[in-house]
Amino acid sequence: MFFRKSRRESKAKLEHKLYLAKETPEPIFDLSDCGIRDVPQGIFSICRVFLKVCLRLDSNNLASLSGGGNLTELRLLKILNISHNNFSHLPDELGALVNLQELHAILDVSYNNLKQLPEDIGDLVSLKKLDLIHNNLKQLPTSICGAQRLTHLTLDTAHFEYPPQEVVERGLEALMQYICDDTGIEYKKVENLSDVLVSMEKSESYFDEDDKQLQVMK
């Protein structure tokens, strides 16, 4: 009985949030904490038609982004939050999100199991914040050198293999410089080094409704 009630409540919450997405000018499409296992059909198209710049799919039971439509329909997105789900990998087509500034994969290890990032991560040339804490990542793809506007990176450094753990622990500039040198790509130093973060500590994400920015608390 409780399970059925919970499913009804989740369905009602989802329907209400879908209604709000279409009826309000709010640029944030919030489908967080709806108990969904699949992205509802047509969600990506709704983002495009209603000019949504932030899509929240966090705190669900998702293992894939398939079902929502073609990822190219999310070209206007600046913030994508898929934290606290069941992802074991990210789609290779991620590079299609050319305006993406913040890719939030702040994933609790009890809900997610990312072991690698797609090579297309380097195509996100506007990417500024990449949060990967609480996963099983042991290496970063060399293609990440393409994301040279990156100013924030959070991940677990324990048992990291590439770049070596001692490099990762020196911070984002050292990490990016190491990979760029390794691949023969020029590294252009980011301007605001005070914003650079590579974290070994547990992080918690929250959404600030006042400034509409997804932030990370240490």
TrEMBL record:
The keyword Repeat applies. The keyword Repeat applies. It comes from the Eukaryota. Keywords: Leucine-rich repeat, Repeat. InterPro entries: Leu-rich_rpt (IPR001611), Leu-rich_rpt_typical-subtyp (IPR003591), LRR_dom_sf (IPR032675), LRR_domain-containing (IPR050216). This is Uncharacterized protein. It comes from Cryptolaemus montrouzieri. The lineage of its organism: Eukaryota, Metazoa, Ecdysozoa, Arthropoda, Hexapoda.
